[in-house]
Amino acid sequence: MKKGLFFVLLVAIITLAGCSGSDKNTIEFWTPLTGEDGAYMDQLVEAYNETEPEFKVKHVVTSDMYTKMYTVLNSGKGIPDLSIIHADRVPSFVKQDLLEPMTTIVEQQSELNQDNYLDVAWESGVIDGTQYTIPLDIHSNAMYYNEDLLKEYGVENWLDDNVITFDEMLSMEGKLAENQFIVNDALMSWVILAQIQNLGGDIQVDGEPAVNTPEMKQAIEAAKQVADAGLMTPYGEDGYLMFQSGDVFFSTDGTWSSTGHAEVEGLNFGVTNIYSFEPDVYHNRASSHLFAMLANEDRTDEKEQGIGEFLEFIRQNSLVWAEAGQIVASTDVVESADYDQYMQSFFTSTPEQEESLYIYTYEYYPYIQEALDMYVADLVHGEMDIDEGLAEMQKFVEDKVNEGTLDVENAPDELPEEE
Amino acid sequence: MQNKRNFAPIFFVGPHIILFIVFILIPSIYGIYASFTKWNLVADPVWVGLDNYKTILADSDSTFNSQFLNGLKNTLLFVVLSVPLMIIIPLMIAVSLEHKEVKLKNLFQTLLYVPGLISISAAALIWSLIFNKQLGIVNNLFGSEAVWTTTQPYAWITIIVVTVWAGIGGNMIIYRAGINGVSRDLYESAEIDGAGSIRKFFSITLPSIKFPLIYTLVMTTAGAFNVFAQPLMMTSGGPRQGTTVLMMYIRDLAFSHGESIAGMASAMAVLLGLVILVISAFQYYAMSRNA
């Protein structure tokens, strides 16, 4: 019997030990792409591995990826060779010395250069002139419209200039049938962030976070006006589903939602820009999935070369990624005729459209996004006084900035020492 | 005399001790240490002494102070609302299942137990649809117009309903086991003495299942303090952060999009742990003394 116990322990030890130590000829590739996105990435990785490269790629979909990244960075073991991170993480990752620059890879693969990618995606990986990431896509806030409703109310002309304005929406006050709405409140914080750009504002002043600004107030008040007029789906109701059930003119969700909307039978829809104040100034708040290498001394030069080859393959072959509803960052793909069939090609159809995609790269942007997500619904739907809310949000971000930033003088080495 | 040391107990207890040390003891100690530091999870923690606790408890200007107080208030509210229901309802069900004329006892027991096995996220999704204003059966059945998850007190009601629905099974099983262990003779002699069913419940059943009651009360209370998934999934903490519980703030501080504020989060977690410890100890003391 004791032998049995020994055996069990032995097996346990061997299995646990087996977990560590990755294969020398495999590129371990972490992504936060759960759900369908992950399946499309699997397809891409599989296609690459079929080309018999020296370094095969192993795609690991990692839920709660950023937490796990901190864990492996701290222990120095099991750090992935390549990963996908979001654009808004880049500044703080670089500040903390967590990213390896793409310098050598860009030198080896001459096609991995700014000309071959959408500018805004490429630039979101540049910090102080150093390239830290290679972009995969841009995923943007987008506004879907219900074709049938626009026709029914005779306002298809709203789409002529590709921008719906607040005034156009407000003109429908009192004209809608019961339980119909002009717009839902999906991704409201992103919509507000777009309005701040439309109003010429920003979320920082000289590097300090600026949430309580006249532009922020104006943006929230404008959205509140739409809600007060009874034109926005009510607080707490599932505006996304209400759009899909055909009761809402516009849905302000993301480029990736087109696949979900397409599955709804009888829903005739198209995509346009997020609503704005004036037809000639419009922005869509976007983010980007970026390939990045976490700092790791164990990554060999050969492996880095392998990573470069994989990224070049993705650059040429990421049309599959458009299936997931994302705006592919590689211009080869975006300019190919096949890409036009995808709804999100709207956002790269003209240079002006391309410029409407706005990625916030301010260092403390994540805290501001967090504050907006926590407060904006209450403010827009009139649950909370706007001035009071703005003051609390400003304080919220400032406190987090102060607490999240280590004082330089007493901060030890930024990176944990590698064993 | 043969001096043969017996290793068998070590093998039985060992795995548990190892797991306990690796996954509970060391992380707890490190968590307490982290609460005295400024730490972003990546760089080395910087010792700041009691600063985090001072900010959380005394600096009324600070966001962390208001978050802690609001989170603690909401957590306490949840505990006060949910724990009595999680004790009384399972107890009543367990007692009624003992009645002679109840048929299909095991079927009922299974039906009530199964919700506890369903992942709380999946359950919360189902319940959000049930409470959905347009599609949900609740509004259609009762003809109410409320948007449940964003209006008080309905937001709390949805959270409590999900919690009770998922939680009664576990306690019920424990009470049933306890009641089954009570000698039939006691009930029979009480009946001969002319005791009614209410008298029998208070004079025989309750005192006999004292320890299961203490156990479930302490565990349910401690569990309720750690509530997280139900408000996150059902109400996202709204309206106006009215259902944002302490665990949600702790998680946001440590593992949100921005640079982590793990030291402050640890301090809040330690304070929450202390509250749980004190209340559990008091409950245990009060109940074992009175019973």
| Biggest β-sheet strands, sense, barrel of chain A | 8 strands, mixed
What helical percentage do the residues of chain B reach?
A: over 70%
Spatial order of the strands forming the largest sheet of chain B: 1-2
Radius of gyration of chain A: 24 Å
- Give the helix tally of chain A: 18
CATH topology of the largest domain in chain A: D-Maltodextrin-Binding Protein, domain 2
Number of beta strands of chain A? 16
Q: Structural class, from secondary structure content of chain B?
A: mainly alpha
Layout: helices, strands, pairs:
The complex is a heterodimer of chains A (about 425) and B (about 290).
Chain A: H1 2-19, E1 26-31, H2 36-49, E2 56-61, H3 65-75, E3 82-86, H4 90-95, E4 99-100, H5 103-108, H6 119-123, E5 126-127, E6 130-131, E7 133-140, E8 143-146, H7 147-152, H8 166-170, E9 181-183, H9 188-198, E10 204-205, E11 208-209, H10 214-228, H11 239-244, E12 248-251, H12 258-262, E13 269-272, E14 284-294, H13 301-317, H14 319-323, E15 327-328, H15 331-334, H16 351-356, E16 357-359, H17 365-380, H18 386-404
Helix pairs in contact in A: 9-10, 17-18
Chain B: H1 8-34, E1 37-38, E2 46-47, H2 51-58, H3 63-97, H4 105-113, H5 120-131, H6 137-142, H7 154-180, H8 184-192, H9 197-208, H10 210-225, H11 229-234, H12 246-255, H13 262-290
Can you offer a commentary on this structure?
- The complex is a heterodimer of chains A (about 425) and B (about 290).
- With about 425 residues, chain A is of the alpha/beta class.
- In chain A, about 40% of the residues lie in helices and about 15% in strands.
- Chain A has 18 helices and 16 strands.
- In chain A, strands 1, 2, 3, 4, 7, 14, 15 and 16 form an eight-stranded mixed beta sheet that branches.
- In chain A, a hairpin with a 2-residue loop joins strand 10 and strand 11.
- In chain A, helix 9 crosses helix 10 and helix 17 packs antiparallel against helix 18.
- The longest helix of chain A is centred in the C-terminal third of the chain and has 19 residues.
- By secondary structure, chain B is mainly alpha-helical.
- Chain B has a single domain, classed as Orthogonal Bundle (MetI-like fold), CATH 1.10.3720.10.
- Helices cover about 70% and strands about 0% of the residues of chain B.
- A two-stranded antiparallel ribbon of chain B has the order 1-2.
- In chain B, a hairpin with a 7-residue loop joins strand 1 and strand 2.
- Chain B is globular.
- The N and C termini of chain B lie far apart (about 50 Å).
- In chain B, about 35% of the residues are buried.
- The interface between A and B is large, with 50 and 39 residues.
- Chain B: Belongs to the binding-protein-dependent transport system permease family.
- Chain B: Pfam families: BPD_transp_1.
- Chain B: It is found in: Cell membrane.
